[in-house]
Amino acid sequence: MIRQKAPLWKQILLQSLTTTEALSAFFEIDETALQKVTDRYPMRINPYYLGLIKKKDDPIYKQCIPDKREISDKNGMDDPLNEEGLSPVFGLTHKYPDRVLFLVSAQCAMYCRFCNRKRKVGRSSMVTKKSIKEGFSYIKGHKKIRDVLLSGGDPLLLENRDLYSILTELRAINHVEIIRIGTRVPCTLPQRITHHLAKMLKKFHPLYIHTHFNHPDEITPEATLACERLADAGIPMGCQIVLLKGVNDDLTTMKNLVQKLLIIRVRPYYLFQADLTKGTSHFWTPINKGLEIISGLQGYTSGLCVPHFAVDLPRGGGKVPLLPKYVMCENKNSLVIKNYLGQEYQYPLYDV
Fold first, then answer.
1. Domains, the chain
2. Which value, in Å, is the radius of gyration of the alpha carbons in the chain?
3. Prediction pTM value
4. DSSP 86
């Protein structure tokens, strides 16, 4: 019997760096210190994403290479968004009235060092057959749920047959109107987005994909092809960018990123203030930095390029959009509003 060759994406994934010893062949690192980090927070860097690093400590390096500060950090929380406290069943978070977050995969193509689920991503106990079964039972039993966001880990690292089974079962629930998939695969392992996968996903509309690019250097020909395949399958795509110190916390980088995203048919959706996750404070930026970037985008590039700047409040408070201050004051008959150039205009108030 001739053994069928594994798909390219699986071959790439199998060659991932998962130990500090393997990492030391590429970069000069403190193996002992970083081993302590990876003992607590797993590392996986596949060859494709590793190849995007141009030099040590560049924006791609910072996102994927462990940092000893991850275990010496005294700030933040293990579960900053209180996902566990808002989980009526293991692996499912019900924070908002009409939608749930449903974890269906424990694995990612690359483990982001700033991940807000770094406490459990990469561990098999994060998602089990039992947790998926209980998640479906909960969704079926709560008819107000009309929107399900599949996450993990990365749902697109599941085998096609397993993903197909999950999507089929969700589509069979009458009150589930919208299915969303949160995935970083188009960025970190774009070879996973095959014609076959895109064709399969197309069967489950209305289906939306939230992907995650943080830097212009991540938008490669391979990533472009992956996003084109999904867009050609009729899947609306939005990008959830995380504002990260030393990665994308300047206007020039962010403007370049959001403009490139539109070219590959991905709408900049959210710019998130980094979550207050333990072990990630070296990535945190002041709130004013995000407001400054949004202000610098507004009016200077297409409105399609301008994401919502949002903070996901600690302890499960939910997402709150933040805007630069455009309304300066209110007079008796008008508002004084500042435009993107800083010029002030009177806007009349009418009693309607």
1. 74-322 (3.20.20.70)
2. 21
3. 0.95
4. T
Spatial distance between the Cα atoms of 58 and 284, rounded to a whole number of angstroms: 17
Q: Is 150 within 8 Å of 135 (Cβ atoms)?
A: no
C-alpha to C-alpha distance for 35 and 66, rounded to whole angstroms: 9
Instruction: At 34, list the tokens.
Output: 């970083």
CB 162 within 8 A of CB 115: no
Q: Per the structure block, which two tokens stand in for 241?
A: 């960018």
Instruction: Decide if 112 contacts 63 (C-beta within 8 A).
Output: yes
Please tell me the predicted confidence (pLDDT) of residue 3: 65
- The amino acid that residue 326 corresponds to is Y
**Distances from the Cα of 251 to the Cαs of 19, 131, 296, in angstroms?**
35, 42, 7
Helix axes 287-297, 251-263, angle to 10 degrees: 60
The 10s digit of each residue's pLDDT in 197-247 is 999 999 999 999 999 999 999 999 999 999 999 999 999 999 999 999 999
- To the nearest 10°, report the CA torsion of 247, 250, 251, 253: -30
- Arithmetic mean of pLDDT, 318-341: 92
Helix (H, G, I), strand (E, B) or coil at 182: strand
Q: Which residues of 290-323 are buried (b: 16+ CB within 10 A; e: fewer)?
A: bbbbbbbbbeeeeeebbbebbbbbeebeeeeeee
How many alpha carbons lie under 13 Å from residue 276 in its C-beta half-sphere? 16
